[in-house]
Specification:
alpha/beta, Rossmann fold, 6-stranded mixed β-sheet, 4-stranded antiparallel β-sheet, 11 helices, about 35% helix, globular, ABC_branched_ATPase_LivF/BraG, transport, amino-acid transport, P-loop_NTPase, branched-chain amino acid transmembrane transporter activity
Length: about 270
C-alpha cells in the first residue's frame, strides 16, 4: 500500500476528533472519504499531511513511518494537498501561486508548470491575474494546480466541489479523474457523495471520528444505508454518469465566467 493509516487518534484539546481511523490507499487508486460534517474527514487529511498531530496510531507512506515527520518533509516525500477553502495567495498572480507549490523543489519545475496550464487552460489565460480576483471555480483549479507542482505521489483533496455551480462540479471531478489517469494517486474528501463514489475505486464512510463502512465505491452507491444517509435515496443506476474526462480541460476553460473582481461561487461550509 502507498498510504496506510493505522488506528489513528487525534484530539482537539480534550475532544477526540478521530477515534481509531484505519484506512489505506494503494498506488494508482482514487479513494474517497464520505460522511456528515464533523465526521472527521478533514481532520484525517490534515493528520496525513502533518497539520495535525497524532495522539496515537501510525501513518506509513511508501513503506516509511511518517507519524512524527514534519509537514514540510511530507511534501518532499510525495504528499500534496489542496485544502478545504482553497487557501490561495490572493495578492499573488496565478503563476506565482503555482510556483509556490514547487517552493521546496531544487529541480526545474517548468515541466509541471506547463502541465498545470495544459490541465487548466483557464489558468494559462490568467497567469498574470491576481489569484484573489478570480472566481471560486478558478481558485479551486489554482489550488489543485499548485498542489500538483510538488509532483506528489498522492494528492489529498479536501472538498474540491464545495460551493461550486453544478457545471463546475462536473469539470472538477473530470479533472480529478484525469489527474489520476496520469499517474497520481488521490485521497478525496467530498460532501458530494454521489460524484465522489462514481469516480472512486474504494470508499470509507466516517461517522463521529470512526470508520463505519468500507467497500468498493460502486458497491456503496447501491448500499441502502449509504443511499439513505448520503445519496438522497438514489441508487447507483439513478445517478447521472460521470462527465467525459476527455472534454474536461476544454470545458473548464470555457464555462467559468471571467471575473474582474472576486466573484466567489462557493457557499460557506465546513467539514472536519
Amino acid at each position: 500500500m502507498l498510504l496506510e493509516i493505522e488506528d489513528i487518534h487525534v484530539h482537539y484539546g480534550k475532544i477526540a476528533a478521530l477515534k481509531g481511523i484505519t484506512a489505506s490507499v494503494d498506488d494508482g487508486e482514487i479513494v474517497t472519504l464520505i460522511g456528515a460534517n464533523g465526521a472527521g474527514k478533514t481532520t484525517t487529511l490534515k493528520t496525513v499531511s502533518g497539520l495535525r498531530n497524532l495522539s496515537s496510531g501510525a501513518i506509513r507512506f511508501d513503506g516509511r513511518d511518517i507519524s512524527r515527520m514534519p509537514g514540510h518533509k511530507r511534501v518532499l516525500a510525495g504528499i500534496g494537498q489542496a485544502p478545504e477553502g482553497r487557501g490561495i495567495f490572493p495578492g499573488m498572480t496565478v503563476e506565482e501561486n503555482l510556483l509556490m507549490g514547487a517552493y521546496a523543489r531544487k529541480d526545474d519545475a517548468s515541466k509541471e508548470l506547463a502541465e498545470a496550464y495544459e490541465l487548466f487552460p483557464r489558468l494559462a489565460e490568467r497567469r498574470t491575474q491576481a489569484g484573489g480576483t478570480m472566481s471560486g471555480g478558478e481558485q479551486q483549479m489554482l489550488a489543485i494546480g499548485r498542489a500538483l507542482m510538488a509532483k506528489p505521489k498522492v494528492l489529498l483533496l479536501d472538498e474540491p466541489s464545495m460551493g461550486l455551480a453544478p457545471m463546475l462540479v462536473q469539470q472538477i471531478f473530470s479533472i480529478i479523474v484525469e489527474i489520476n489517469r496520469r499517474g497520481t494517486t488521490v485521497l478525496l474528501v467530498e460532501q458530494n457523495a454521489q460524484q465522489a463514489l462514481q469516480i472512486a475505486h474504494r470508499a470509507y464512510v466516517l461517522e463521529t471520528g470512526r470508520v463505519v463502512k468500507s467497500a468498493p465505491a460502486r458497491d456503496l452507491l447501491d448500499d441502502p444505508q449509504v443511499r439513505a444517509a448520503y445519496l438522497g435515496g438514489a441508487s447507483g443506476d439513478d445517478l447521472a454518469a460521470a462527465p467525459d474526462v476527455a472534454s474536461a480541460s476544454s470545458a473548464a476553460s470555457a464555462s467559468d465566467a471571467p471575473s474582474a473582481e472576486p466573484a466567489d461561487d462557493r457557499e460557506e461550509g465546513s467539514s472536519t
